[in-house]
Design a protein that fits this description.
The protein is of the alpha/beta class and 403 residues long. Helix content is 37%, strand content 24%. The protein has a domain of 184 residues: FAD/NAD(P)-binding domain, CATH 3.50.50.60. A hairpin with a 4-residue loop joins strand 9 and strand 10. The chain is globular and about 65 Å long. The chain binds flavin-adenine dinucleotide. The site of flavin-adenine dinucleotide (FAD) has 35 residues, from helix 1, strand 2, strand 3, strand 12 and helix 9.
Length: 403
């Protein structure tokens, strides 16, 4: 992937972004708009078309609004009218919560998106802005010199860039090459998550996001359209290290043996080829997010885990703050990178603490806890308290006072 001497080498606006996910694409767009010359490389061979469902609001919405992406986000629709916590037989523990109530409490700034929806919106904007995204390429080695960062790619080509960003997710390659092995930074929270899309026929989830809980294990079902749903399983388990692909479904089935509602049945009926996502709930905690001309962003340096429900928001915030600080300091990374880290790292640390605490609520540990929780949830999802509840849970953008 040698871009030739006209743009490579010592050009002082050239930027390589490793990772074409939410953080990487957001950064590519913003840097291009500020006069940089970014290239994004992505390990996957093409844009993903499937992905787990996400709540999108707060900080993520704020960045999307600043980037003019809200219209595209509002065009994404899923048939989700209500939120329902259901019991063993699928009956609600308390009356369904209309999603419209949540949306109103957030001034209409709320959407369900799949990760691939957001990536597609960002990819389309990146393409329109002229940001090259090269699929099927990774970094093999990196060396920083006085004049730039020399990178060798998996296809054997090499090039030099002024700056390098690692936006390559929780198992970041840039982090491993330049900051140290993952084991130095990972904090396993004691949970696993598995998710896939399946035909919803026969499961009768209607137009509700349905949540079924038992001590130590939960299932979230999102309707995707009239025929299909997204099933997300979260469960407590000791660290098992990396589990090979072919063993994942059997492992999840084992964890949900005897589970109520449709939790066990869906796993029995899903074909093994369908398991699209499986990972441990592992946060990334680092003492520094940058080194010389190289900086990390998104999950690569501050993974919150799905338990926070705000990882995509903070990934976009990271990109926004990096581009803003580079602009503020006239492109001088020696001042911009510490400013980025100084502003965002404490905010990410706070959200990581919140996620650790929240984990015990999302995956209850006893029947008694569940009973009291439903009473509490019924109250906090009421018209009276929902605004205050969402205020605690990330409704306010971390960038609201950031200019
Ligand atoms: C099940 C689940 C539910 C979630 N729910 C929510 C939610 O409700 N709300 C929310 O805001 N967040 C949610 N999140 C978190 C959110 O998805 C992440 O925090 C967010 O995607 C982080 O963005 P990122 O760009 O840093 O990393 P990623 O989205 O992981 O993107 C990293 C990219 O880098 C690529 N890559 C990896 N390695 C390499 C390499 N060596 N070279 C080149 N490319 C590479 C990957 O293929 C990927 O495209 C959820 C996460 C999960 C797993």
């Amino acid at each position: 992937m040698n871009r030739g001497s006209d743009v490579g080498g010592t050009g002082d606006r050239t930027v390589l972004i490793s990772g074409g996910g939410i953080a990487g694409l957001t950064l590519g767009i913003l840097l291009k708009e500020n006069g940089w010359d970014p290239i994004v490389i992505e390990r996957d061979p093409a844009m993903r078309t499937e992905g787990y469902m996400m709540d999108f609001f707060g900080t993520g919405w704020d960045v999307a609004e600043r980037m003019g992406l809200v219209r595209d986000i509002r065009e994404v629709h899923y048939p989700i009218d209500n939120l329902e916590y259901v019991d063993h037989n699928g009956n609600p523990h308390f009356p369904a919560v209309p999603i419209e109530r949540v949306r109103r409490a957030l001034d209409g700034k709320y959407a369900y998106l799949s990760r691939s929806d957001l990536e597609r919106i960002l990819f389309d904007r990146a393409s329109a802005a002229g940001v090259p995204v090269r699929f099927g390429i990774t970094i093999r080695s990196v060396q920083e010199t006085d004049s730039g960062v020399q990178v060798t790619f998996s296809d054997g080509m090499s090039d030099t860039f002024h700056l390098l960003f690692g936006a390559d997710g929780v198992h970041s390659r840039v982090r491993a090459l330049l900051f140290g092995q993952e084991s130095q930074f990972d904090r396993f929270l004691g949970y696993y998550v598995a998710g896939f899309h399946i035909p919803s026929h026969g499961y009768d989830i209607g137009r509700s996001l349905k949540i079924y809980e038992e001590p130590g294990r939960v299932l979230w079902c999102y309707p995707l359209d009239e025929r299909c749903m997204d099933a997300m399983y979260i469960f407590r388990h000791d660290d098992i290290g990396r589990l090979p692909h072919e063993k994942r479904l059997a492992f999840v089935r084992e964890q949900f043996t005897g589970a109520g509602w449709i939790a066990e049945r869906v796993l029995q009926e899903v074909p093994s080829s369908e398991l699209i996502y499986f990972d441990s709930m592992t946060q990334i905690v680092m003492s520094a997010w940058h080194k010389g001309r190289i900086a990390l962003l998104g999950d690569a340096c501050g993974c919150l885990t799905p338990l926070a429900g705000q990882g995509s928001h903070m990934a976009m915030a990271g990109a926004y703050v990096i581009s803003r600080e580079l602009e503020r300091y006239g492109g001088d990374h020696r001042r911009a990178f510490p400013a980025y880290e100084g502003f965002l790292k404490p905010l990410v640390a706070k959200k990581q603490d919140d996620a650790r605490r929240l984990a015990r609520q999302i995956v209850p540990s006893s029947g008694l806890q569940m009973t009291t929780r439903y009473l509490l949830l019924r109250m906090i999802y009421s018209n009276l308290f929902i605004g205050r509840f969402l205020g605690v849970f990330g409704a306010k953008s971390v960038l609201s006072d950031y200019t």
